Amino acid sequence: MPPGAMGWVLPHFEAVTSLQIAVFAVAGLVIGSFLNVVIYRLPRMILAHELPDLPNQAPAFNLNTPSSHCPHCQYRLAWFELVPVLSYLGALGHCRHCQHRIAWRYPFVELLTSVLFSLCLFKFGLGLPAVLACFFSAILLALAWTDAETFLLPDALTQALLWVGLVASAMSLSLTPLVESLAGAVFGYGILWVVSWLFQALTGKEGMGQGDLKLLAGLGAWVGIWSLLPLILLASVSGLIFGVIQKMRGQLGDNGHFAFGPFLAISGFACFFLGISMGV
User: Fold this and answer.
1) Rg from Cα positions in the chain
2) Which of 55, 160, 184, 246 is the most buried (most CB within 10 A)?
3) CB 115 within 8 A of CB 132
4) Residue 6, H or E segment
5) 213-222 residue pLDDT tens
6) What helix, strand, coil percent values describe the chain, rounded to 5?
């Protein structure tokens, strides 16, 4: 189809049924609710693991324990307070127990995940490739938001993004051939490593964390080597614009650092769903 037609970007847009759309949309809301748990807890788990053992430690803290609760008053949430989006709206964005405001991130991530899952269905149709695309979308969204809030890109997520992308290509369940997927992963890590090394050699400062390198390697496994250059260009330009604006507003900080992962993620979504590449 010609560029601009819906089928050019989302070829299964008219083929899927309303029931299929509803299933993927609801699944996105549920997974989005879990992503909120990951975004909140995983960085704290990492930081706690890096600290030396202390006596009288708090009870176990992981993705399962303790059960969902208000982070301010520790009130344990009932099942009806865990319904994605609706619980937030029903409580008017506040904890029912302490009335502390609930972060807008919770319903936003749930809704965004639902939209992304629907896009995966429209792009791949009902089947395993769409499910794997949903996995890609969920992991990438969690990485972007975690980095934006904590400057952390957990290995557990970047490695999952990389290896599932390679396996999907090896099994012909993604649009990227295995050779291009492998080359994308290697080149994605390598090019940012070179840039980071050169920046540190010239300035004596660390310009990019290892997490960014691993994230781009994971993205390369999904979009392939021919989409990496446009991806990096989009991320660099958008990141530069953001940095200049933050600097002008006096919100960039003394070290001039800001999270680059969200810009890599947004560019990765653009290349993945729009098929942006060098045209090879």
Assistant:
1) 20
2) 184
3) no
4) helix 6-9
5) 999 999 999 9
6) 65, 0, 35
